[in-house]
Amino acid sequence: MYFQQEIDKHFSDISRVAQYLWEKGWAEASAGNFSIGLGRTDLSQNYLFTETSTVDLKTSYPALAGHSFLISGSGSRMRDVAQDPKEHSLLLHIAEDTQKAHCYHHHTCQSKPKASSELDVHLHLHVCNLEQNRPENCVLHAHVSEVIALTQLEEIRSEENINKLLAAIHPEFRLFIPEGVALIPYMESGTLDIAKKTIELSRGKRSMIWEKHGMICFEKDLNSAFDLMDIVAKQAAIYLKLHA
Ligand SMILES: [Zn+2]
Fold first, then answer.
1. Ligand 1 mean position to 206 CA, how many Å?
2. What's the chain look like in SS3?
3. What is the pLDDT of residue 198?
């Protein structure tokens, strides 16, 4: 697929999924973010995106040298992303000096947003993907209300309990997410610590619950990452109804 076709498809997916997140109520204000790995890319001949700035990363990502990611802009509202994904996204290219990244914006983009504050957890997950040769290259984070509510309940705040509960609600949970979900204890967001903890506790899982915060899911495309959230949210909502 040509670069422009690939990028157009991603923008179309971003628009649809951003709209779903907004309609679900999982993306209040500027909540939610995404990244799509494009692999090693040479942007020197590209005419869609223009380099606008460089950014110092919090740590070095040698495995990602030369790779590009289509990511959400900091402060972008998902309801706005849905309307105009090119205006609220950027292309991040990890430099050969792997603690730096080049920021590119679509040639139609006026506001030139910076990278999302959750960038490090996204990049850590992409490193995992490469190291484990996994097919997933899209990361999606949202404030999934049903899951936030579920993790307020003291008695189920363990990974074992939450997986038992989700599997007991509906038989198809195990069909869609046979490996279960990871539960990451509450931590301050946007830090390297939460990125490292998420990797440590995810252990090959695609669906991670951040206690009292939401979910971060890792899949081959954004729609499939949204599916994981939707499946977990459905089980959580039924449990909450039963115990209201
Ligand atoms: Zn968040």
1. 17
2. CCHHHHHHHHHHHHHHHHHHHHHHCCCCCCCCEEEEEEEECCCCCCCCEEEEEEEECCCCCHHHCCEEEEEEECCCCHHHHHHCCCCCEEEEEECCCCCEEEEEEECCCCCCCCECCCHHHHHHHHHHHHHCCCCCCEEEEECCHHHHHHCCCHHHCCHHHHHHHHHHHCCHHHHHCCCCCEEECCCCCCCHHHHHHHHHHHCCCCEEEECCCEEEEEECCHHHHHHHHHHHHHHHHHHHHHCC
3. 95
